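Re: the request from the purification team.
They wanted to know what the chain is likely to look like in 3D before they choose a buffer screen. I agreed to run a prediction and write the result into the notebook, where they can find it.
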Amino acid sequence: MTGWLDGRRALIVGAGSGIGRAVLDAFRAEGASAAVLERDAAKAEAIAEALPGVPVTVGDATTRAANDEAVAAAVAAFGGLDVLVNCVGVFDFYRGLEELDADVLDEAFAEMFSTNVKSHLHSVKAALPALRRSRGSIVLTESTSAYYPGRGGVLYVSSKFAVRGLVTALAHELAPDVRVNGVAPGGTLNTDLRGIPSLGQQARRLDDTPGRAAELAARTPLGVALRGEDHAWSYVFLASSRSRGITGDVVHPDGGMAAKS
């Protein structure tokens, strides 16, 4: 029985935990060869130990150098690149504009948009020559926050709107050679999603919020608290030939938020 991604060569940015790690496992299960870019050295080491043969680059996805290195490692290992996935992100723990001190606004904005937006631009820029050669596919990580209010603070929500814009702009720019789509997960368990340093949130994990599983289930029409594994198959579909007629679009694995009254 063949996999949905047999023969595909992928680079997954931010695959150390949460959704990114679930995507890595799902891609491999469906027959893809996958390389990784991960900032956290301990997470990168864990991947290398658990998955011998997976090229792992340790580096900051917000920089050109790290993305160039990761793409080069993937191409060297696999002979090319067919799929780029970016799952990098940070959160702001629902901080509204009135709750943001004016003296930290510049730094907080830079931190949020560097991680949530600039990392996507750098990863696409680095991978684009290889993806054009293979007529490949890009899958960026949006969020339900870019479609429904109250799913984050002012910086997080606006950064995810920016990723939504990247999907639209890049799909138009790169057609017909490269398809570009997004996945917009709803609230997710076991993501290791953290806050930003300027707000003193970097040590805090969203997943540590008391009662989070019950809260996530209660907010969705399907009554489910989703995990990375639930989202990963949306990435698989968009990376596969089964979605070859789709670009500039988004899949919403969010428990049915569109049906909420």
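For the purification team: Residues 221 and 260 are 6 Å apart (CA to CA).
Please add any questions underneath this entry.
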